Amino acid sequence: MKFPCSICIHLFKLVSVFHLFAVSGEALLAQPDTITNTTAGEQVLFPLQNQGWEDQYNVTFRSRFPRTIEILTWKSNNPENLHFVHPLYQHRVGIQRDCVMLYNVQVNDTGEYEIHIDYYGTKMRKHNESTFWMQVFVFRLFVVYREALRIRPDTVTNVTAGEQVLFPVQYQGTDPYDVNFSLKFPVPFKILKWKSNKPEKLDIVHLLYQHRVGIYGGFVVLNDVHVHDTGEYEIHIDYNGSELKNRDQITFRMHVFEPVSQPVTVILGNCVNSPNITLSCSVSRGTNYTIRWEKMSLSGVLNETYGTVLVIDCATEVEQHVYRCIAENPVSNATSDPVTVSRYNGVNLKGKRNHLTVLVFLGMAVLVLIIGYYLWFTLSSSSTAKGNWSQ
Fold first, then answer.
1. Average pLDDT of the residues in 252-266
2. At 79, is the secondary structure helix, strand, or coil?
3. Is 174 in the same domain as 290?
4. Which domain holds residue 281?
5. Cα 255 from Cα 144, distance rounded (Å)
6. Of 13-27, 132-146, 359-373, the least confident
7. DSSP 3-state assignment of 180?
8. Domain containing residue 335: CATH number
9. What are phi and psi of 203, to 5 degrees?
10. Domain stop point among 106, 137, 168
11. What SS3 class is residue 149?
12. pLDDT of residue 44
């Protein structure tokens, strides 16, 4: 078959793009004679079930339902080129790793597919056929957990990063309706659109919320919330029935926090060698947190001081006190190991300072032994040398 020059140039461009495809580690392998559920935007691999790789063969990949079209033709004796690609699948289909690869699948790719292999070897073979069914969804089929947090309208809800949250869809009547879920602040944009007469798919999903948002059981479900999901959201419902209704509109405010880690304290000075002690406190993880110190005696908490640094006057430490650093935000709190301070005993951080002191003394003792051995060895060598010289 002869092709016009323009088509030849176009095929050359297609081959160049095809060889730039990369099969990601998350590509989904379709199984013959079964239904493969996948998500829009993913890569799907259709395996070639060849019966004799030593023979030459042609591969034809086609759609059988809902429409019958030939998608791709490839020849093993000319592996660097695709002999034919349907215009609807330009730059989205190719042969790689003994598979037909369909890249960036769409909802309208849902259907039945067939791989047909014709052999042209020395052995007499007819052909080989494999059938696949693929269902493409706009969003992932996720599970709503019992621990999912329900967001209340017209109030601020504090949420821990990583949680699943539910925004209730409060619609009225039995008429068909459309649900629009949008972010209003800090940056207004539409996140999701869903129609009750097409419940199996989402009409619109914003790129920032791909695979994290969906409609389930009368809720807009948002999975794995992030700190930057903090903001004001809105659900508005448009009714499409015969009766004229005003649209419903609900506003939600959500503040997402990262939980705090256990505080770490650092001690500078002691009451034995200095007039005061400085305690500092820090956390390695957490957002919008506050830090405070608790001063305790045997009778309980004496006072609290806010701030990361606490300066203790040794002159006022008549009796022994225990200090604790507490970090907290609206969704979490964590406490440091206790720090014990007294005028006579200095500082003890739950025994850790004592262990460190022992290690320091051991290190100094080893160093003294090494220096003593070196001096002894030097003097001994010097004495021996003098004795030999006098002889």
1. 96
2. coil
3. no
4. 264-353
5. 20
6. 13-27
7. strand
8. 2.60.40.10
9. -75, -40
10. 137
11. strand
12. 93
